[in-house]
Each structure stands twice: as C-alpha cells, then as structure tokens.
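User: Can you write out an input/output pair for a complex, sequences first and structure second?

Assistant: Here is one pair. Inputs:
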Amino acid sequence: MNGEDLIERILREGERRADEVEVFYARGLSVGTEIKKGILGNAEESEAWNMAVRTVRDGRIGFSATSDPDRWKECLDAALASGRLATPQQWGGFPKPADLAGTPSAADGDLVVAVEDAAKMVGDLLAGAAEHPVEVVGGSADLARSYLAVANSSGVFYGMDRTVAAVSLEAIREQSTGYEFDASPYLADIDARSVGERAASLAARSLSGRDIETGRYDVVLSPVAAASLLGQVLLPALSGRNVKAGRSFLADKVGEQVFDERLSVYDDPFAPGLGSTAWDAEGTPARRLVFVEQGVLRQFAYDLKTGYRYGEGSTGSAVRSGSEGPGIGVHNLFIDGPRVKEPGDDRAVWIHDVVGAHTANPFSGDFSVEISNPFWIEGGDLTEPIRTAMLSGNVFEMLAGIGGLGNDARRVGRLTIPSIRLNNQQIIGK
Amino acid sequence: MSNTFIENGDAAYDEILAECKDGILLIGSRGGQVDPGRGVFQFNAEYGYLIEGGEKAGMVRDVSLSGEILSTLHNIALVGNDRKMSPGYCGKGGQSVPVSDGAPHLLLENATIGGRGE
C-alpha cells in the first residue's frame, strides 16, 4: 500500500470511531557520513517512515505515532485510547482545505542522496581544515530527501518534498577548539571547504588567548552566538502558549516598543530554509508573521489547540519534531533590520559561540554563559584571541538597546540572523 | 564510567561555610555544557545563596559557574562529608546505560561565577 492509500484508509476507519481524524506522514532517505581521526570513518544510509495520528472526539484529543506501516491499526487504536483519557478542550475542528498563500523553497531538485556526494563533501571539509595547523577531531556530511504530508477528515491533503544538505567540522590545536557547520535545503548553498577552513581557523587562531579583566565591554555576538541565546530565550517568549500561561516576558506588551527600533523579527515560511513550507504541521496555511516590527511587538504564534483555547486562532505556527505531536514554533525566523558595515568598528569583544546557552532563563531572559573563541575585534578585523571568560546579562534588555546589526546574516537552524553589537556588557574574566 | 563521584572528605557542611567566609553557595544544576577539547565547563545552578561571614545569607538568581576543569579540581580547598549520589543515563547513538554521579559539598577557591552583579 503506498502512503496516500494508507492515509485515506486511516482517515475512513478513524472517522467511523471519532468526530475527526488527522494523519501526519513522513518518509525519507538519508545518508550520513562521519569524520573519525581525520578521515571519513563511517557512512550510513537509512530509510525512515513515520506516521502520527490524532483523533478528536467530544473535544478530547488523542495522539499516537508509529514507524511501522503494518501497525497502523494499532496506532489508530492507541490514539483513540489516549483520547479517552484526555481532558476535553475548546475545539473548533481541524482546518478545511484553503488556498495556500505561497510556495515553499524547501526542496532541491538537484540534490541526490548518494554516499559518493556526501563523501565528496567530507573531502572538501578536510581540504578546508588542512589550510591551518590543526587536528580534525570530528565532523559530518549528511544528505536527505523526504516527503511530508498532512491530511485530515475535513478534506485537507497537502504533501511536499524537503531536502537537506548539512556539514560540520570540529578541529583542535593544543587546547584550542573550533567548530563550524552549515545546513540548507540546497546543496549549492553548502561550501564544505569553507566550513572546514573556518572551523580550523577558529581553533588555530584562538590559541594563546590573553586574559581579560572582569568589567563592562562592548561585545559583538556572531550570528552563531546570537542564535544560541535568542533561540533559548526569544523563541519561547513568542509562543502564544507561554504568553497565555504567564510564562512570557513579552505577554501584555503587544503594541509596545519592546526592542530597539532597528530590530524586526518575523517568520517567513516561504523563504528558502530548513523550515520552509506552505502549510504548518496541522494543515493550517502558513503565512508571513511579523512578531516585532522596528522594535514594536505585534503578535504571538499559535497552533490550533492554543488558538481555540484562548480564542486567538491559529497563526499557522504548528511544527513537529520527530514523531511528537504538534507544538508551537517557527518555520524560518528572521532577525532583521538596517545593517551597519561592520559591527566591530570600535574595539569590542567578538564572541563566536557560547557554552551553556540552554541554561539561560527563558522567562526572565537572564543568562550567564561561558564564551567560545572570543577575540578582540577592531575595525572589523579579529585581532587578538581572548582566554576563557563568561558573559552575563539579560536577552530582553540587550535587544532593547543594540549597538547595530552586522552585514553577515547567516542561517543557524531555523533562524536567519546577523551578528549583533551590544554595548556595555558584563564580562567575567580574571 | 558507570558511577563517577568525588569521595567524602572530613569537613562538615558548617565548617565549609565558615571556612568560605564570603562567597556563593551553589545548589543543584539546571544543566551545563562541556567543551572537552578546551577542558572548559559551564553549569547553571538551580539555587544560589550568598555566604556572608560564614553563614548562608540572601538568595541570588541565575548564577553559573564556569572554568577549566583541571584547574578547578586543583582549587578544591575543603571536601565535605555529606556525599549525595544522583542517578541518570549516559549514552550515544541511540544507546544509553544507567549511570550515577555525586559529590559532597566542596569549597572552591577563586572560582569564576557569572551573574548580573558587578
């Protein structure tokens, strides 16, 4: 039975036993290669098949998932059984078929899931790393192609292709490490040699960093460091679920100037990116959402359940990871605004990445993290490495008054973000 | 490593606070991260208290400890006698095994604490 026939069958069978049924379906092929001890050490090809079923009966939502097509009946039974235990929700039904507002840029027709192509990327990574006197301690190159579909008993049946090309490399020189990575739906976007070279350069150039005195400094967060902190703190604050539960710093601030007027934050599901799509994980049409416009908070993100519960309506922001049920998220989040030529024109501490961003407090915005590969930056050039130090502060306060956005936006997971200059920040050094 | 811990010393908890005089008491972990190549760690405490004049004083929030693992271990001045173990899992590539770790209270000298204070 092919995927579409199976989905139809589950919908028909489920409809007899519940008010509504939804099937989320994914199948994919991927190759993954790993660098071990400086060479291609391991390659594997895998095929995955996943299906998640939701049933609704009298407002009680049931959920189950399986990775075995032959067990679809048990999966449906389990969804119905979990629905019997669920607390009834305010519920207005799964979405009906609708005109989709845009076309996603999620699949590369030229990307072939072949181990030879992944091995070539490994070769490029290693060639890039060889430009500096470092040891390569790890890395990977992955290629994947998948088909995703969402269908429900109200007549929605959307399907799409998605491709991913991803590389990473980790290098070490004595006690100095460097890590770089990139991922895109488009193979041509990935410059594996440059990723390898940059990881090796970080390791090589961070050697023999000088101590820094504890105090207040101007800092420049690279896109990677900025994405780590904002991903942990800003994203949860935009979730309607957290807003309504009183867990968001931004709750009750719609219409207010919450951030610097040079900052805008929006989700563009149609832009090329790892989350690019025309419909969300519940079959609601995705649309461009402006969360923050020139520093003014405009709206939050909702999925069906939270939208119905609070009378807000879904914003098409449902996402899924793995075989879990849908939750509120973003598709392609952009941190954007007018750029300055170099965010480091005046001397500042440039921070490539942070260690421990996941310990930042998403409710208050407070964080205290170790910094990785810090350098003094002057006139846009990294001049001198700095030895280990910590950075602490508050993400919401930082975004309220930034020093400027750099010209170097890059994709980090589902975020596209430039470097951010922040003046007068607390560094804990010697 | 299946059961990794710092063995008990002979200092009582009150002695550690008294010896510390002025410092910060970190309790529990909200998670942390290690860069094994650099030998650097960071962790964020669940609760933090100031220690003033050898006694536990006011609470501080969102404090982290970071440092180089080996030099941090060299800077242990007192080892408590109240070791606690906590269970968990450790694994890779989809496989995991039950493990545990633990330690008594430790007095660390010259540690790097990050917080919002000046």
